[in-house]
């Protein structure tokens, strides 16, 4: 990549995700709304948990991602000063084929007018309002809203590569992206388990990486992730549990909590009930917790998986380590599906995304809720600013 001039303020790349999903419209809605005076993602656990008394998120993805209060026709006009205001002093670089963003704005019934640049070398040294940087192109004839598409998967991979190259070159400090579709990415040729492993490969990371989810001040990581349930037990070892505990500890600290309290869930019902329902808690999970304590991490457990999130909800813990994907994801999504964020932990660059998917069933209807994307953007801003402060 050609030499890019140095710049003073941090920059964040905002990607639209799968162009056939709700990503383009929720990004457009976020940009039209502009920044808030208080950056999203800063809520404390106690104040945020109080908001959970509204049990409005049903099991259906449609109901969780729908915002019926947003107008579905006509243009949402917002004050110019909000559109151009700074996102907590961070320059927002939207990377997209221009027509994809325009389509998203039309679907969301909002107006988005960004300065447009064709090359990273042309970006201004100081970015005081979001701008659009042309990335890889996507053929409009290949656009199939609401459907899995290999063409969309290729565009996603090319756009991710473009953004990661900018991060490696020091042009941007963090990445926030709207939801991707793993099936489309695999159809396009990706052989990675998920985007996290794709990021780690492209960024040359050989150490431990893992997804960390956060919602209203509560964080969760997992020992195993996108694998069949029958394979979970093969990953329940001290060597795999301890890094998951360390990862969530470091990630929460990086968000601003100096000494996070971490609960570790058991694998079996009732955390094994003293060995009656399985011995993993005694033989493996408890030794991993003790090893974490030896590293001065405030970890405790193992706790029964069916009640550990109740204790966390009461404010006893900032983080919960679970043994497999659905053990934590079901709890977190019930607590606030429309606000959850995924952080890709263990990478040299902060990367965040909404915890929800592409919601193909509501694409183009103008009802997709952008709150999780707003939270993901706010958290990425916090993390990249801390990264820069640590380097200075």
Q: SS-based structural class?
A: alpha/beta
- Largest sheet features: 12 strands, mixed
SSE pattern, N- to C-terminal: EHHHHEHEEHEHHEEHEHEHEHEEH
Rough outline:
globular
The domain tally reads: 2
Rounded to the nearest angstrom, the radius of gyration is 21 Å
Could you list some keywords that capture this structure?
Isopropylmalate Dehydrogenase, 392 residues, 37% helix, 12 strands, alpha/beta
Overview of this protein structure:
- The protein is of the alpha/beta class and 392 residues long.
- It folds into two domains: 1-43 and 59-205 and 347-392, no CATH class; 207-346, Isopropylmalate Dehydrogenase (3-Layer(aba) Sandwich).
- The protein has 13 helices and twelve strands.
- Helix 10 links the parallel strand 8 (261-265) and strand 9 (298-303).
- Helix 1 (23-33) packs across helix 5 and helix 9 packs across helix 10 (280-294).
- The longest helix is centred in the last third of the chain and has 21 residues, at 371-391.
- The protein is globular.
- It starts with 10 loop residues before the first strand and ends with a helix.
Task: Put the structure in a nutshell.
This protein is of the alpha/beta class and 392 residues long. It has helices at 23-33, 45-51, 61-65, 80-84, 98-108, 150-168, 182-187, 195-202, 238-255, 280-294, 308-313, 325-336, 371-391; strands spanning 11-15, 91-96, 116-117, 131-134, 174-177, 210-215, 218-222, 261-265, 298-303, 319-322, 341-345, 351-354.
């Amino acid at each position: 990549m050609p030499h890019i001039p140095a710049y003073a303020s941090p920059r964040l790349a905002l990607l639209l995700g799968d162009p056939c999903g709700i990503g383009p419209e929720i990004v457009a809605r976020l940009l039209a709304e502009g920044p808030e005076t208080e950056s999203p993602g800063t809520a404390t656990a106690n104040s945020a948990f109080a908001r959970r008394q509204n049990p409005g998120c049903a099991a259906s993805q449609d109901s969780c991602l729908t915002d019926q209060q947003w107008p579905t026709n006509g243009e949402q006009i917002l004050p110019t000063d909000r559109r151009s205001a700074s996102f907590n002093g961070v320059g927002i670089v939207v990377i997209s084929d221009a027509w994809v963003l325009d389509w998203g704005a039309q679907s969301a019934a909002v107006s988005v007018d960004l300065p447009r640049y064709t090359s990273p070398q042309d970006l201004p040294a100081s970015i005081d309002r979001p701008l659009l940087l042309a990335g890889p192109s996507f053929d409009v004839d290949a656009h199939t809203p609401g459907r899995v598409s290999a063409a969309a998967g290729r565009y996603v991979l090319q756009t991710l590569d473009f953004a990661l190259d900018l991060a490696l070159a020091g042009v941007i400090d963090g990445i926030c992206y709207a939801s991707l579709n793993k099936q489309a990415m695999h159809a396009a040729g990706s052989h990675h388990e998920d985007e996290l492993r794709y990021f780690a490969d492209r960024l040359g990371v050989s150490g431990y990486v893992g997804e960390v989810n956060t919602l209203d001040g509560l964080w969760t990581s997992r020992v195993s992730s996108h694998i069949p349930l029958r394979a979970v037990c093969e990953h329940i070892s001290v060597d795999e549990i301890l890094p998951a505990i360390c990862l969530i500890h470091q990630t929460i600290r990086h968000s601003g909590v100096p000494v996070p309290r971490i609960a570790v869930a058991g694998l079996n019902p009732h955390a094994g009930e003293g060995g009656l329902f399985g011995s993993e808690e005694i033989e493996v999970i408890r030794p991993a917790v003790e090893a974490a304590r030896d590293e001065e991490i405030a970890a405790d457990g193992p706790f029964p998986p069916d009640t550990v999130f109740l204790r966390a909800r009461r404010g006893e813990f900032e983080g919960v380590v679970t043994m497999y994907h659905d053990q934590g994801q079901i709890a977190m999504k019930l607590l606030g599906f429309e606000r959850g964020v995924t952080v890709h932990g263990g990478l040299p660059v902060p990367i965040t995304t909404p915890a929800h998917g592409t919601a193909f069933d509501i694409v183009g209807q103008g009802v997709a809720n952008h709150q999780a994307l707003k939270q993901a953007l706010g958290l990425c801003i916090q993390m990249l600013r801390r990264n820069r402060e640590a380097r200075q």
